[in-house]
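Appendix B, record 7
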Amino acid sequence: MNRALPLAMLVGLTLQGCIFSPGQHMDTGNLVREGSPESSRIELLPITPKLVAIEAAADRSNVVAPELLSYQPVEYRIGAGDLIFITVWDHPELTAPSGSQQQIEANGRLVRPDGSLFYPYVGTIEAAGKTIEELRSAIASRLAKVVAEPQVDVSILRFVSQKIILSGAFLKTGQVPITNTPLRLLDAIGQGSVVTESADISGLVLKRDGREYLIDLDALNRKNSNLHNLYLKDGDQLHLPYNDQKKVYVLGEVTASRAINFKGSNMNLTDALGTVGGLRQETSSGKEVYVIRGVENLADEPVKVFQIDLKSPSAFALAQHFKLQPQDVVYVGPADVTRWNRFISQVFPSANLLRTGVSIQEDLGSTN
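Structure tokens (predicted):
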């Protein structure tokens, strides 16, 4: 038995360690204990109606920069590369010099790189920078020297000179022409066709005049959204990022722990828990539901840990209004009985080991 005593002491120390870590558990007392190293780096915040209201007031995802909304499209001005179709009524030889049997584009007039175009009996005329009406009037004025009271009409067959660029999570990327019909943001997005499964619709970036603007397309579903009034102009670039780098992680006592792609800023705590099948009824503690939100620099600001008690039915309504952010970690802790069961499952193997050690010592003693 003399050798069994040190073994018993070792097992006892092992069991003591198990008491403090029988399973995953977040000790909220240690999080905010005054004077501890963690207290300066972690801030525990209960999720309350007041907190949800404060978070909602601080949410700027529905705000669009005033300078974007103030832009109003002007009348289209012709540019290099545009294909112009000129009609002179009662003069088919001028309207379709290549023959009426040809496709309409074959009789179009291309605006040259220097901004000019050629037309019979008119000669070379400067087209770039003119509106459709200004070009029509200039052509009619010159034709009047050879045609009595010419009736001239001008239209654009192909718009090339003004465009925006789409990139990222669109089915169709590249150039989208701006025509004589003003191009709205939503029109451009519709032409590009968003890849809904993998697009981060809350992170659309509009580049204009050397500046970048973040636009949350989720705002379209919110009250008083003004994205419908946002027009694009020549040179704008729209980049829609993929959401593979933005996730919400749901861990702990849930049906299926996993990472959820963060598709939009409207994801709330109820959405996240519902996506993974909810809490495990047998093992979870409804009062230990946490949202852990990291920061870029721990030296400057603490990590925020939000807590909600989902034992109350009203708390589910509150969770529905608590919006998650990319890289948030949702953690559900185990119930007291679960921690006890895990503790017991660790005690019995250790106790068996102790009994085995004592039995060996007894056998050795009797043999001697």
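Remarks on this record: The chain has ten helices and 16 strands. The two ends are 12 Å apart (CA to CA).
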